[in-house]
Amino acid sequence: MSFQPIQEPFVALRTKALESLLIEKGLVTAEDIDRQIAYYEHEIGPMTGARIVARAWTDPDYRKLLLEDGSRGVAEFGVPLESRMVVVANEPGLHNMVVCTLCSCYPWLVLGLPPAWYKSFAYRSRAVIDPRAVLREFGLELDDDATIHVWDSSAEERYMVLPERPSDTEDLSEAELAALVSRDAMIGVARVTTTPVRPVESNG
User: Fold this and answer.
1) pTM here?
2) Which of 71, 104, 125, 154 is labelled catalytic?
3) Which of 105, 120, 153, 182 is catalytic?
4) 14 and 113 inside one domain
5) How many domains does the structure of the chain reveal?
6) Does one domain contain both 36 and 56?
7) 61 and 95 within one domain
8) Shared-domain flag, residues 61 and 40
9) Which of 97, 106, 129, 153 could be disulfide-bonded to 188 (CB atoms 3.0-4.6 Å)?
10) In this structure, are 183 and 91 located in the same domain?
11) Annotated catalytic, 20?
């Protein structure tokens, strides 16, 4: 069953009203807005985050740096961060998930546009109160003895999950591994599987 957050239509209406006002006053065009959305969706993330994960899976020294100092690790990919970045790793018996209980703080430059459910009150409250049930609604079943850590993002500190590398991927290149990594896995509400979620980048 997929997670169904409480809908917050006023957010969409407010956004649409602001967009219309900016266009009406000639400050932006509809094309400008579409280009910005496409930029965050296709140029910034979640591809940047996926490449970071793939590098950490294939380079032990980089993984160590990323987990010790997420800001420095992310900076190696040319990401300009305004907040401290913390990367937490999933391991057998240990699962991490990220939430922002106060608003919707989120590492846009690493993961791209935040999903609507991440910003909803339902997720922001229930992820802390009953994370196992929320994960189950995303289709992620954890063992009863698995430990779940919920990390609360803020304006000063943002979190990203380093998911476990799926088995039988030893022969895949870094680009092929990155193609497996989804935004949801880096938030911590999904596992990485061997089914690609985006095209493999070509070096040609």
Assistant:
1) 0.81
2) 104
3) 105
4) no
5) 2
6) no
7) yes
8) no
9) 97
10) yes
11) no
**pLDDT tens-digit readout, 55-72:** 999 999 999 999 999 999
Q: Say how far residue 160 (Cα) sits from the centre of its chain.
A: 6
User: Could you report the per-residue pLDDT of 79-104, keeping only the tens digit for each?
Assistant: 888 899 999 999 999 999 999 999 88
* C-alpha closest to that of 77 among 91, 89, 65: 65
What is d(CA 66, CA 58) in angstroms, rounded to the nearest whole number?
Answer: 13
Asked if residue 129 and residue 53 are part of one domain, the reply reads yes
Q: Which residues of the chain have pLDDT under 70?
A: 1-12, 37-45, 201-204
One-letter amino acid at 180 equals L
Q: Is the Cα dihedral 31, 32, 33, 39 positive or negative?
A: positive
Residue with tokens 């169904």: 4
CA 100 – CA 153 distance, rounded (Å): 5
Q: Does residue 200 fall inside a structural domain?
A: no
Instruction: Say how far apart CA 124 and CA 154 lie, in whole Å.
Output: 12
Q: Cα–Cα distance between 85 and 184 in angstroms, integer?
A: 17
Residues 104 and 21 placed together within one structural domain of the fold: no
Range list of H helices, 25-107: 30-38, 47-58, 60-68, 70-75
For residue 46, cis peptide bond before it (omega within 30 degrees of 0): yes
Supply the range of the domain harboring residue 21.
10-44
The residues, any chain, with a CB within 8 Å of residue 202's CB and separated by 6 or more, are: none
Query: Catalytic annotation on 120?
Result: no
Of residues 123, 84, 97, 83, the one with CA closest to residue 183: 97
The verdict on whether 153 is a catalytic residue reads: no
130 within some domain: yes
Same structural domain for residues 67 and 166?
A: yes
**Looking at the domain assignment, is residue 195 inside a domain?**
no
